[in-house]
Amino acid sequence: MKLQDKILYCRKKAGLSQEQLAERIGVSRQAISKWETGDAVPEIS
Q: Exposed/middle/buried for 21, CB within 10 Å: 0-12, 13-18, 19+?
């Protein structure tokens, strides 16, 4: 399973919208969308 698939799976399993997840982790909804489509990857620091 690719990272983008894991992000989408976990978000849906938690019952969160992209907006809700974005608010919880402090990023934009657009960032979540890009992660889930594979257009970008989260920066881990």
A: buried
